[in-house]
């Protein structure tokens, strides 16, 4: 399974794993891949600093990466209070009435009411500054190209920069901006995703950026056969995400039995692509919460970051309730394969073993 990506990062397998859990990211790195820690959940830079120190100390000296959420264009951004004032009362009322209808209890007074500020441009910049004080080798941006000055700062520190792309034209633009690695994320993926499926998207992106720019296939990857398919389409590696939500190590972050029940019973058709999570199209698990937003009379989702600020407390309440029928969680169509909770090392081992079996079967066909 060795490709140029392995040599670029000093890893054994060209498997990159995005995850909000440091325990998952570190376990993937120790198992020979590249764990990439999602930073968006960190409102407190001190907490991120402590977490990356933990990553430094628990990855056996092996490389890891970080993922940020930063638009290339710098928005006009005031305080959280200023932004909150832009949220219509009708939207707030809809959220309150929906939570009541779904039977979601309130949080204890003063607990978990702050939104995830990592969606704000200024906070994402602070995440980059903290990361550069540690030893990641790679920084990826979930919203495409970061601002050019951020790319240059990362390059000066010796980091490679990656960006997600849902179309070939976006990938080419990222390269023009100085991005080193393109993550071609197909429609099947969880979280923010475009409208083109991976089978079509990956070769289009590979052809658009040329042979000198590494491409990672993303979206719908949860077994070794799908890793082999991505490499056959021209990718040099894979970017995985949803599959790690079903690992034992993820429990250290989630601690939510409702979420486990929800994904263990879900099929590949039990997801929906919607703007209700952040304001941009993202694939979520289909639940009573997502269905409420699709009903007649429901308001249209607000643009990023207002939508996230609108639903932040609601998501905290939903997650705290542990109700699998209501849970709000980004996940890709690969959720249909997530039928048991396993250690990260076992998932990695199966990806590698099944990849080898798939290649052997193809070689046998090829004579």
Automatic annotation (TrEMBL):
Keywords, comma-separated and alphabetical: Flavoprotein, FMN, Monooxygenase, Oxidoreductase
Keyword Ribosomal protein found: no
Listed Pfam families: NMO
Domain of life: Bacteria
MF-aspect GO terms: monooxygenase activity
SUPFAM superfamilies membership: Inosine monophosphate dehydrogenase (IMPDH) (SSF51412)
InterPro entries, alphabetized: Aldolase_TIM, NMO
PANTHER family per UniProt: 2-NITROPROPANE DIOXYGENASE, MONOOXYGENASE RV1533-RELATED
Name of the protein: Nitronate monooxygenase family protein
């Amino acid at each position: 399974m060795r490709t140029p990506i392995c040599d670029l990062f000093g890893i054994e397998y060209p498997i990159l794993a995005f995850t909000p859990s440091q325990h998952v990211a570190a376990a993937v790195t120790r198992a020979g891949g590249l764990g990439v820690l999602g930073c968006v959940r960190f409102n407190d830079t001190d907490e991120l600093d402590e977490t990356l120190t933990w990553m430094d100390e628990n990855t056996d000296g092996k490389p890891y990466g970080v993922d940020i959420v930063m638009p290339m264009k710098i928005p006009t951004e005031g305080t959280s209070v200023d932004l909150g004032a832009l949220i219509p009362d009708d939207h707030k009322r809809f959220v309150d009435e929906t939570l009541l209808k779904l039977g979601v209890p309130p949080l204890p007074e003063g607990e978990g009411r702050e939104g995830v500020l990592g969606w704000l441009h200024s906070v994402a910049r602070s995440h980059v500054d903290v990361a550069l004080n540690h030893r990641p080798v790679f920084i990826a941006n979930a919203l495409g190209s970061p601002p050019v000055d951020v790319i240059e700062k990362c390059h000066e520190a010796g980091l490679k920069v990656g960006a997600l792309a849902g179309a070939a034209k976006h990938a080419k633009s990222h390269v023009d901006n100085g991005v080193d690695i393109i993550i071609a994320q197909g429609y099947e993926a969880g979280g923010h995703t475009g409208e083109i499926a991976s089978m079509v998207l990956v070769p289009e992106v590979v052809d658009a950026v040329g042979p000198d720019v590494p491409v990672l296939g993303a979206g719908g990857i949860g077994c070794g056969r799908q890793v082999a398919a991505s490499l056959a389409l021209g990718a040099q590696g894979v970017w995985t995400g949803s599959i790690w939500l079903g690992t034992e190590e993820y429990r250290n972050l989630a601690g939510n039995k409702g979420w486990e029940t929800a994904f263990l019973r879900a099929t590949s058709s039990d997801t929906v692509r919607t703007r209700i999570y952040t304001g941009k199209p993202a694939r979520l698990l289909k639940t009573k919460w997502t269905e409420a937003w699709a009903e007649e009379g429901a308001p249209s989702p607000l643009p990023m970051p207002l939508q996230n600020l609108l639903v932040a407390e609601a998501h905290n309440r939903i997650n705290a309730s542990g109700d699998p029928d209501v849970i709000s969680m980004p996940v890709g169509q690969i959720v249909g394969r997530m039928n048991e909770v396993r250690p990260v090392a076992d998932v990695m081992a199966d990806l590698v073993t099944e990849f080898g079996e798939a290649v052997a079967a193809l070689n046998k066909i090829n004579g």
